[in-house]
Structures are given as structure tokens and as C-alpha cells.
Fold this protein.
Amino acid sequence: MMIKKKNDIEYELFIILLLLFQGITAVVSTSLTGMMALLIMALSAYYCFIANSKYLLPRALKLLSSLIVIFIIYGSVLILSGKGLIVKETGDPMPSRKYLVDLMLSLLPIFPFYIFTKRGFITEKTMQRLFFVFFAIAVVSYIKARTIGLERALETNQYATDVTNNSGYVILSLLPFLVFLDRRPLVRYTMLALITILVLYAIKRGAILILALCLMFYLPLVLKKSAKLVRVVTIIVIGVVGVYAYNYILDFVESNTYFATRLELMQEGDLQARSGIWTGILLAFLDANPFQMLFGRGAWATLEVSTNLAHNDWLEILTNQGLVGIYIFASFWYTFFQAWRKSKKNTTLYTLLGLLFITHFTRTFFSMSISAMPIYATCLIGYAFACYSNMLQTERTIKIGETVNEQQTHAHVGIAQ
């Protein structure tokens, strides 16, 4: 009988807890899911500490750890201050603890996935299995969000076609999983089609824009490494499906004035109320004293200087953590980009990091992405950087071996002479 090691049990318990949490919250939120969220954060914080103390982390994850520490400090100060914050635009109260909980639940789970991948528990096959489970949970969550949106539309006398669905971003975060389906092209294209349809049907302009950018990056790479016959068949299928999708979208836009209006506004660069919020936040920054410019006004300070949160990670961090926060945040994305570019020799990793960078970096400009990163995204980021770390380690080992061989060769030549 095989006895499981402690590390095996840690991994299995964490994954089970995570899947239970995702599955239950996709249907209903209760006090039980709240306790599960706290447990996930506590375990993830532990693995974050382990990762930073016992592993040679890629620079991007070191910078992310620094951001997390800053968020913890600012979030704790907000909680201790006892401030009662309100979204002026809607009148909704914002519990002070929500700032810290959202950020920690969004960012910390990256580290357990990093460690479990480094330990060999998470492989490409594992990611394939997780993808289908995650997709099923995400679809249930998507349907729930759509249903709630329709109920609210009825209460406010809106048309059902006027309902947008923020779960479109959640579905979009599953797109990078397709890199693990290279050997199953039929399944890959089927899932790609389903993701595309769900994102379009969510009517979120930001999600649609990111989807388009991801497809422009992903599809040429897929076709490039396919056999000629497969490439020709794939292009024909994509062409047929593309024409059908184009005609479908045209019909949908013509019959849906709300969606048509949103697309027109996006083309014109009109972001509705967002531009007014962003202008107010920038003016508030210019009016700040030097200390506030450097270190910010504190967690969720945007609610004090504007009618709503920034819906832009850069402006949110600029207001809350100042130029220091912006510097670390920008450095994180720069090192993320560097990791992507350096991984070209590994096609799967290169594609994965590219899709992750395009998806989440682009989203920072028109959404509160850093505090609302789906667990599917954190899973992928942790896995990708663990693979990147392994790649760097292999390269270092090869260089050391080459150096030793050169030294030995020179030594033998010297003796021979």
C-alpha cells in the first residue's frame, strides 16, 4: 500500500478546498464560503512566505510579493481607521475589510500554484483536467450572473438585451488553458468557440477587445506549428466559422441597439462615466501634497476624491499608494513582459505567458483587475512562472556545465604542453 507524503496531502487538500469554494460560490454565497475564503487566504499567505524564503523566485513574483506587503499595510490601516466608505455614485456602502480581502484572495493563490508546480504535483495533464472543471464552474457562475442581471433589468424596466455580464472576464481568463490542448485540436477549437461566444454574449467591451487581441496573437502561432494539411483544413474551418460568426454578430448588432451603441462608443473612445472619474482622480493627484504624491492617500482613497473607484488599476494605485506603488506595479508588468519574451524557446510557455500578459495587462487600463483576478488566472500565472523558473534553472545548469568543461579542457591542454 502506497503511503502519501505530507506534500501530496497538502496539494490535494488545497485543490479540493479551492474547487469546493469555487463550486459553491458559483451557486450561492454563505457564511461557509466566507470561512473557506479566509482559509484559502491563510494557506496562500503561508505558501507565499515559503516561496519567498525557500525558493529562488523570478523577479516578477518578488515584485508581486512587495506589492502584496504594501496592500496589507494600507488595507490594515484602513480597517483600523474605522472609516465608513460609500460609493457616491450609487450610495452603496463599502466595508473597509473588503479592500484587503479582495486583493489577497486575488493575488495570494498564485504562490501555492507556483510551489505545487515546482514540486511536480501540477503538470500539463493536471492543467488539462483542471481546465474542464474550471470551465464547468465558470459557466455556472456566468449563468448565475446573467440571471441576476436579468432580474435587475426587470426591476428597473430595462430590456433584457441591455444586460452586461462581468463574468465575461472570468470566461476570458480560461482562454490560456487552450495551450494545453495542442494534441487535441478538435477539443481546442470547440472550447475556443464556446469561450468566444460567451465573451461576446456578455457584451463587455473590454473583454471583447482583449479577446480580439488574444486571438490575433494565438491563432497565427497555432497555425504556424501545424502540419500543412491540418493548417489548410484549420484555415478553411476558421474561415467558414468566421463568416458565419461575422454575419451572426451583424444580425445581433442590428437587432440589439444597446450593444450597437456600446460598440460605437468604444470606437469613438467614449468610456461613458469612466472618463469623468479618471479626470477627477488625475486632478486630485495634481492637487496632492508631496507626501501624498509619493506614498498615496491610503487604501480606497479614490472613494474620497471621486464618485467611484477608478476602474483603472494604474489610477487606483496612483491615488492609494502614490508614485512608489506605481513604480512597483509598472516594474512587475515590465518583468512579466521580459519573462514572456525570454521564453521563446519553449513554445507552450511562450504562448501561455503571452496570453496571460495580453489578457491581464490590457485589463488594468479599464477594470479593477488586480483585485478581481479569477482563481483560474492565478492558477495559470503560478504555473507559468514555475515553468519559467525551471527553464532558467536548466539554462544556468547548462552554462555551468559548459564552463566546467571549458576549464577542464584548458587544464588538459596545459598539462599536455
About this structure: The radius of gyration is 24 Å. The beta strands are 85-87, 92-94.
